Amino acid sequence: MANAFADLRKKRNDSSVGIHLQLVSNQPADPDVLQLLHDLASSKKVFGSRQSDANKLRTAAGLNDDEFRESAAALDLSKTGSRFALKENILRTISSWTEGNARSLTDSLLRFIRSRMMPETKGEWITRETVLAELGFSSVHALFPCPPELRPIKNLVKRKTSSDIVDAMVAGRKYTCLHGEGGTGKTTALQEIEAQLPPGSTMLIFDCYGAGRYLDSDSYRHRPKDAFL
Fold it and tell me: In terms of domains, do 188 and 217 share one?
């Protein structure tokens, strides 16, 4: 775990910002361990046997003082749960990704992780690409919609059409079709509409055109099954 933390920190230009280490066990961590990690993370002085414990941890981790302090701050031992509860949570998460057989995907993923824990895979990283491949997906686009290719426009000129659409939405109209020839500003109108929505509103935009990429054979932006996952 210390080696993984050091490598992640190095990849982030010697910064631990955004790194979160979580060890989930079926037994809660000893309060003395939690307190020691808290003191180390906050650079609080420890004495006596606790100082000896801190030295043992630092030696075992093989990290310098700054890395060791940051790793203690990033380590979270607060979660507990049985292996069955963990598998159920994984199953529930994968079910939200795909309409396929989530149970077989979960079992396959667990077998994959176990195989990567064997001695012969030492030094090999589990990456997003390897997990996607194990789940049978060649691209992250199989799980999420195609990324938008829309460019924001500055200094928008307010148009009555956009205000009328917002008024209709606020009044409860569920469907509105705004159509026109290319270059008339339909996409720009979406940006203007979003700016006029009431506070707390959320606007989701699916870019089916993709700056012309909808014509690519490997870009399925025009299909409802890909737009409305």
Answer: yes
